[in-house]
Each structure stands twice: as structure tokens, then as C-alpha cells.
Amino acid sequence: MTRRPPLLEIDDLSVTFRRRNSVTRAVDGVSYTVAPGEIVGVVGESGSGKSVTVLALMGLLPRRGVEVTGRVRYNGKDLLSLSEGAMAKLRGPEIAMVFQDPISSLNPVVPIGVQVAEVLLAHTRTNKSAAMAESVELLRRCGIPDPERRLKEYPHQLSGGMRQRALIAMALACKPKLLICDEPTTALDVTIQAQVLELLKELVTDAGTAMIMITHDLGVVAGLCDQVNVMYSGRIVEAAPRTELFGHPRHRYTHGLLASIPRLDAPRGEPLHPIPGTPRDTIAWSKACAFAPRCVHATDECVRPDIGLAALPDSPADHPVRCVHPAEVSHG
Amino acid sequence: MVDTDDLLVVEGLEVHFPIRSGVVVDRTVGHVKAVDGVDLRVPRGRTYGLVGESGCGKSTLGRALLRLEQPTAGTVTLDGVDVTRLKGEPLRRLRRRMQMVFQDPLASLDPRQSVQSLMIEPLRVHEPRPAAELVARAAEMLELVGMPRSALAKYPHEFSGGQRQRIGIARAMILNPELVIADEPVSALDVSVQAQVINLLEKLQQEFGLTYIVIAHDLAVVRHISDRVGVMYLGRIVEEADSDRLYAQPLHPYTIALMSAIPIPDPEVEDSRERILLRGDLPSPANPPSGCRFHTRCPYRQPTRCDDEVPRLRVIPGRPGHRVSCHYAEQILDGAVQPAASLVIEAAAG
After folding, report:
1. Alpha-carbon gap: A281 to the closest alpha carbon of chain B (Å)
2. Nearest to B264 among A194, A195, A222 (CB)
3. Contact yes or no for A261 and B281 at CB 8 A
4. Interface of A with B in 151-180 (CB under 8 A)
């Protein structure tokens, strides 16, 4: 499958948080692209920088004490150099975002319908009654039963799955070309998660929306995403199309992670192979592989600086890995 | 039937919470039936897994077994002693035999107590001895869960989530309990750390012959650790079987849908399996549906019996130990009853 020209290109994006006496590089030289109709997954644990990357490109990080470098091109425009006003015009009709926790992203004292209509009123030429009618349609399309009644309800009256759907309806209100989902199903039960994922999948197929899916759940990525980026401690450590990534994980972190999680379809009684240590055991970002302190294959070479994200001789060119001692290619 | 090998026997357990209303006159206007008639048996040295989605009553059930919640009806028998009617000193003495591991160790460990103080607290309550002995025991216990002795002088916030959970486990184990109830023991942890804690729980079980009840929403974790699994829906167990049997062939429509909804980290499996979607959300446990409680969302719902006749949890003929509460379990097994086509998502075209 040849990839279409990308809608969004993130190139060497870095985010540094400066406080009085500490400097944290949350994102370090991240690059990836998203094309229309494509779902790009970003997997990583808490603190890996997967959310900060997209907050930076949306211009949602505070200005003070935060330094963002690199380039983000959206449809030919450089997002990082846009004014706040120009960026606000893009958010909604062009790029929309679905957050993890719907109860803290929705306004608790405004009815759901008004919150959805608000987006339409802000970005399109429409009047209030037309916007409300449109919200009913949106909520219905997002699988909310009896939307006319739900429109008047407040967020606390809805269940978790409903709230998440209302949030998706808001994000879809202006038919964005790029949808960024930050852990959209993490707060939901699995059966509700399946409903929401199905809805998102339909969207991409029907409207050709480009999507970034941020999650810690490898299972969600396996079923949904075309392209997967694995992040660890602020960097992409491995990137590949999904079948390649899950079939032949090469980075020791990805490899270890897949071996450590119990699978529903694997024979029972097989011992799990945990990764030692915790994600906090990293070495300073300026030096080498952040996973080395937890890696059983680490050698002195792993602490040399500038280990790049590069294609390996025995893997396809679209499967770059940032590892000195990659896992063997598995056969079968 | 009295089987002496069962450490824990639960019969007809109910926990109903009153819903109160009124400003001047406090009236009870209804009950939330969090646990509504649960029977289960856990043999000594085994692990029983309880799965279900949020609000199904699995945590309340776990708490009621330890008498952290007062059951409104039914009995819980630990090693022949009815826990539900004990009070005072006998209850206190029984409590040391059953301990709990909580989901969020940051919330369940007092932030202002050092690890040493946290660890010896249960010992001080249950077996007062000279302080030096208690500290030595605490250090020994920490070592067992893979923590250094130096941890004793630290406070909970100084540890990572996985380490805190180890402390929580050490604290539960320090009294040498027989029954340990673990409520979502790994779901608050980072993915790469979960396997460490699962392996630790298994190691401790082998070493001390512990009996576990593991409560979790993650079916893969429960399957890995449990010998027998019960699936809960709206306060009741809807299906129960040995772990392998249940996962190989679930028979209750809820279990079938739940399993098909779990994402598997393998694109080939994901593309080739079919998914059964459930409609809507969990009904309110204050006003559960009539008949089979699952009929409002059931993809296999039939025009007769489902809406008005309550199914019993019964053993399916030819499948020993496999209990299902569905009128049509046999028909689902032999394929005579199929899910509604509109709710089945076909496998993606290869």
C-alpha cells in the first residue's frame, strides 16, 4: 500500500520544561507523519511524552517555562509559528482533539447539547436553532440513544461511555481533517471501549479523516492503527506498520513489553517475562538509550550518546529502531 | 455437600445499600442491589478470579467477604466459621486470617507513616511482641517481595507505583493470612511493571500455600492467575468455570461479548476474529431489568423466557463445573441460537 502525501508532518519536535532549578526534556526529537484516512498510533507508558507531543503541536502548552523546538507542518502551514488567533481558527474545523477524561473536559454546568452547538456557532455561519438541530444529528451519529432528550442533560447525568461519545461528537462537529485521540477509551469498560473504537474506525473509513491515536494499550493499537510509533522516555524508539511491528518487534522495550503482558489467546500457564525496574529508571536524556538501565541486553555501547532511530539491515526500511542490540527477527 | 477442602464457602450473599431521600424525614426509597445472591466456593491454595465491568458489584463482594461491608443476607464461611455473624474478639482474630491488597497503593498506604510503621502496624494489633522482633519481621517480609531493608525508613511517596504495590502486598502478607483478596492489584500500574507484580503474587502463593480471590476487569490478567473464574453482571455471577474451560468456550452471552471486546496485541488475530457489540450501558443496579438481567443488552435475546423468567446459575450437561445462568446456554453451545446479525462485526477482509 503506498501512503498518501501526509496531512501533518512532525519533524524533530522537542519540548523542554524549565523550572527554577530543573530542566526536563519531555519530548526529544520526535518525528512522524499522518496522511488522510490513516490512523497513526502512538504507544507508550505514562511519562513517555506521547501526550505532550500533541499538546505542543496544538499550541495547548503554557508559554512560560516551556520551550518547543522543531517543525510541525499541517497542510503546508507551520503550526508552531502561527499566532494564537490563527491557531484557534484551526482548532475545531481542521484539527480536533478527544481527551481521556470526559468528566474533566466537559463543562459541568452547561447542558451537553449547548456544548456541542457552541463548537458549531464558533466556527461556522449558523444560527442557534440550526446548530442545536445539527447537535442532535451529531449525537445520534455518535451512538447516543434518544439524543433530543440527552441534549438537555448535564455531563453528570450521563454515563462514562455517553460522555466520551458527547466529547467525540464535539470533536467531530466541524468535520475536522485531523482527529487527535488521547487515550479516548482508557476510562471506559471494555464493552463500551469496543463501541467507541468501532465508531472511530467508521469515521476514518467514511470521511477519510486522518487520526492520531495515543494509548498505552497495545491491543487497541493492534486492532486499529495502520502505523505505530512506540515512545519511551520522550523519544520514538521504534516505528513500523502494525503487522511488521507486532510480527517482528526489534527494540528491546517493545519486545519486552509484548512478552510481559498476559494474552487472552495464548496458552495458559506460560510464565510472564517482566521487564525489571520502572519507567522512572532512566538516565539523563542527553545520553544514549533511556531504556538501558532496565534492559537485560544493555552493554557499555548503550550509553554512548546519539543512538539514532535508523533502519536495520535485516528489517524493512519503513521499520526504524533506536537500539544497539535489537532483538532477533522472529520466524514463523 | 460438605467438601472439607473448601477454604471459603459463600452462599446466597446479598449486599443491598439503602437509597435515602428526604430533607426532614429520612426515608429509604429503594435499594442498590450491589451484590444480589452470590454462591461460590474457593478450594484451599487455589485462586478464584472475579471479573466484570465497573458497577457489577465485584469489589463490594470482595469487601463483604472480609466483613468490610456488612452483608444484608447470606453466609460467608471461612474454614467452617460463619464470618457474617461474628463480632468482637472472635471477628478480630478471624480477620488476621484474611487480608486485602488494594488497587491504588498510594491511596491505601498512609502518606504520613514510614514503611516501617506501616508494616508493623498489623503485627502490633494482632501479635504484640518487642519492637525489635517486629522490625526484623517487617524487614524479612520486604525482602520477600523484592524490596531492600533500607525501604523501612522511607515514606510511601518515595516509591514508584510498582514498589508501593509491593509494600501493600508485604503488608497484607505479614500476618501469614490464609485468604488474600486482591482488588485490581495491577490496574493502577504501568504496563511494563504489571508482570512483575503478577509474578510476585504467584510466587508468594506457591511459597505459603495462599488462597487468592483476584478481582479485576482485565480478563487476560485474571485468566493468567486464576484456576477458576466467575463473571459478574449486575450483582450476580452469570457464568463460572475453570479458567481454561471458560476461556476456550464461554457460554453466557455476556461473557462471549466481553471476551470478543478485549483487544489482543496481535494484528493478525485482531483482523481475523469477529466482534460482538453490546448495545447501551449497564442498567441501574437500583432497578435491575426483569427476567434475565442481561436481556436489555443481550445479542442472543430470544422472544420467550428471557424477558420474564429469571435464569438459574446451573451446571451445563456434559461440562462438569461449568455453571451458566442463561436459558439458552445449550443452544448457544451447539450453535442453534445465534447472535443478532446487526451486532456482529465481521472479521476485516484479509
Report:
1. 10
2. A222
3. no
4. 159-162
Q: How far is CA B261 from CA A4, B104, B185, B276, B296, in A?
A: 31, 25, 22, 7, 18
Instruction: Determine the angle formed by the axes of helices A112-123 and A128-141, rounding to 10 degrees.
Output: 120
Nearest to B223 among A145, A220, A268 (CB): A268
Residues of A in contact with B161 (CB under 8 A): 278
Which of A233, A232, A266 shows the shortest CA–CA distance to A251? A232
Question: Considering CB atoms only, which of A189, A198, A261 is closest to B217?
Answer: A189
Please determine, for the modelled complex, whether the ipTM score is greater than 0.85.
Answer: no
CB-based contact A272 B199, cutoff 8 Å: yes
B257 vs A191: CB contact, 8 Å cut-off? yes
Q: Report CB contact under 8 Å: B270, A190.
A: no
Per-residue buried b or exposed e for B186-204, using 16+ beta carbons within 10 Å of the residue's own CB: bebbbbbbbbbbbbbbbeb
CB–CB contact A190 B261 (8 Å):
yes
- The count of other CB atoms within 10 Å of the CB of residue B183 is 21
Which of A162, A265, A273 is closest, CB to CB, to B264?
Answer: A265
The answer to whether the pTM exceeds 0.90 is no
- Contact partners, residue A22, CB within 8 Å, separation at least 6: none
Question: How far is B348 from chain A, CA to nearest CA, in Å?
Answer: 10
**CB-based contact B254:B339 (threshold 8 Å):** no
Q: Check A257 against B192: CB less than 8 A apart.
A: yes
> Among residues B69, B65, B10, which one has the least CA distance to residue B37?
B10
Tell me the C-alpha distance between A218 and A228, whole Å: 10
Q: How far apart are CA A51 and CA A42, in angstroms?
A: 9
**A16 CB-near residues (< 8 Å, 6+ apart):** A23, A24, A25, A26, A66, A67, A69
From first to last of the 332 residues of chain A, give the pLDDT tens digit.
455 789 999 999 999 998 888 888 889 999 999 999 999 999 998 888 999 999 999 999 998 899 999 999 999 899 999 999 999 999 988 999 998 888 888 999 999 999 999 999 998 888 999 999 999 988 888 878 788 888 899 999 888 888 888 998 899 888 899 999 999 888 788 888 888 888 888 888 888 899 999 999 999 999 899 999 999 989 999 999 999 999 999 999 999 999 888 888 877 777 888 888 887 766 555 667 888 888 999 998 888 877 889 999 989 999 999 999 999 886 54
What's the rounded Cα separation, in Å, for the pair A322 and A30?
12
Across the interface, do A194 and B282 touch by the CB < 8 Å criterion? no
Exposure string (b/e) for A87-111, b if CB count within 10 Å is 16 or more? beebbbbbbbbbbbebeebbeeeeb
